[in-house]
Write a structure and sequence with these properties.
This protein is mostly helical and about 130 residues long. It folds into 2 domains: about 50 residues; about 60 residues. Helix content is about 90%, strand content about 0%. It is built from 5 helices and no strands. The longest helix is centred in the N-terminal third of the chain and has 36 residues. The relative contact order is 0.08.
Amino acid sequence: MDIMKIVMVGIIAAVLAVLLKEERPEIAVMISIVTGLVIFMFLITRLNSVMTVLKYFASKANIDVLYFSTILKVIAIAYITEFGAQICRDAGEGTIASKVELAGKVLIMVTAIPILAALMDIMIKIIP
């Protein structure tokens, strides 16, 4: 199972990072970052099947491509932002992590403008 591989990589990397943290903290941070990237890349390859299923259901439900792609972009921004912020926190940079999270929130808002505009149009049509 894929989760077993991911957990084993995580445990091995965590043990290595803890062992090296005292004498070589820079290598411990690098192990943490590289492990996070390896797990992230592994997960990205798995998302293709999820995307195929979601596209199928979106077409069956007759959902506008603009809305569907916008929602997927928002989800991607949220996951990537969280991943980046966690890496910054692992490196001991909490303030940078906070800035990464703020940037992610702003980008989500900017990306969601087409959906917000459509929602406002609907509300204007409903309210005389």
